[in-house]
Amino acid sequence: MIARERPSWDPTRLPDQSGRTFLITGGNKGLGYFAAEQLAGAGAHVILSGRHPNRLAAAHDALEARVPGASVETLLLDVANPGSIRAAAASVRGGLFQRGRLDGVLLNAGIVHTPRRRELTRDGRELVIATNALGHFVLAAELLVTLAKTAARGVTPRMVWLGSVSTRLGVYEPTDMQLERGYAAWRAYVQSKVVVQALGLEADARLRAADVPVASVVAHPGYAIGGRTPTVHGVNQPSRGKRLRDALQAPIAQSKERGAWAPVRALVDPRVEGGQYWGPRFVTRGAPVRQTPSPTSSDPEVRRRVWEECERLTRSEWPFARAARAAR
Ligand SMILES: NC(=O)c1ccc[n+]([C@@H]2O[C@H](COP(=O)([O-])OP(=O)(O)OC[C@H]3O[C@@H](n4cnc5c(N)ncnc54)[C@H](OP(=O)(O)O)[C@@H]3O)[C@@H](O)[C@H]2O)c1
């Protein structure tokens, strides 16, 4: 799992991203926020999305203060709510008439500290799978044609899915995706991440088969914690106790700022290709390198089943044919 490649990529000096636009889900804190900082710092226009207006406004203010001249706009988007996803996607499509392109989507929002008891969304889906996987499945479908139109400009737009190293800790075959036959908080998290990774890999295979020039990549951040992360007003303000507790994990953990390195590389490094898996060099921490996904999430049969179950649960299909036409 540990790659031998020496890191030749400097995450603190990204290639110029001027003129490019990226959308980030869950961008008001954690990895999503720091990914936004890194992209905006390289000159990209960032659409910072989140489900809560005040948290989004705080992150927007922080980003503008920390990255002078940043080009950033906010977008209300609750990935556990299909109506919110469709409204946000429509607004991105509308806004693009002015900006004209969408170069990448970072499908980052997620519940990390999962509820102890099974909870449902308003439309009756199990909350963790709905937030971490189903919402992004719908969002990517909604934005696929827009991404494909950007491909007509000679670039390959990307979608990057947030996987997790936890997918290697045991076999979590998603046979009961909504955990109707037995819910446990840890299982809900790991299974949702197996599903996310399977979706990211399957999406790429289907995009290629349909001749859609959009790449799908999976990246994981290792183990990234708030108490090892710089204080950013309104974004990351851990208590003294949390700082002390998290310091004990220093040998295996990294900051959320560094955790964002692999997803950002997956979004912008020209050498990254669709269907790949990226993460920190020392598994839980380090510079971003190419890795191998867990056998379960890369199993073609698991991927197919997961894809079809997501289609069934969300009642949505990806518009591959339309996207292929839009790219021409
Ligand atoms: N940190 C790690 O070590 C680690 C390891 C493996 C994978 N990951 C993955 O990386 C991603 C980000 O993790 P993180 O550590 O940055 O977590 P985090 O600090 O808890 O941030 C999660 C983000 O997702 C947002 N979010 C949650 N539910 C949402 C919803 N329904 N709609 C829109 N946004 C929502 C949160 O918004 P609110 O502020 O409104 O809650 C927040 O912006 C997750 O997908 C996670 O599974 C993290």
Structural account:
- The chain is of the alpha/beta class.
- It has one domain: Rossmann fold.
- The chain contains eleven helices and eight strands.
- An eight-stranded mixed β-sheet has the order 3-2-1-4-5-6-7-8, sandwiched between helices.
- Strand 2, helix 2 and strand 3 form a beta-alpha-beta unit.
- The structure holds NADP nicotinamide-adenine-dinucleotide phosphate.
- The site of NADP nicotinamide-adenine-dinucleotide phosphate has 30 residues, from helix 1, helix 4 and helix 7.
Mean model confidence by pLDDT: 95
How many domains would you count in the coordinates?
1
According to CATH, the homologous superfamily is NAD(P)-binding Rossmann-like Domain
Q: Which stretches are low in confidence, meaning pLDDT under 50 for 5 or more residues running?
A: none
The CATH class turns out to be Alpha Beta
Provide the β-strand percentage band.
Answer: 5-15%
Q: Give every kind of bound small molecule, once each.
A: NADP nicotinamide-adenine-dinucleotide phosphate
Number of helices: 11
* Category from helices, strands and their pairing: alpha/beta
For the terminal residues, how far apart are their CA atoms?
38 Å
Rg calculated over all Cα atoms: 18 Å
- Find the CATH topology: Rossmann fold
State the helicity in percent bands: 40-55%
Oligomer: single chain
| Shape, per Cα inertia axes | globular
Strand order in the largest sheet? 3-2-1-4-5-6-7-8
CATH architecture type = 3-Layer(aba) Sandwich
Mind summarizing the main beta sheet?
8 strands, mixed
Order of helices and strands: EHEHEHEHEHEHHHEEHHH
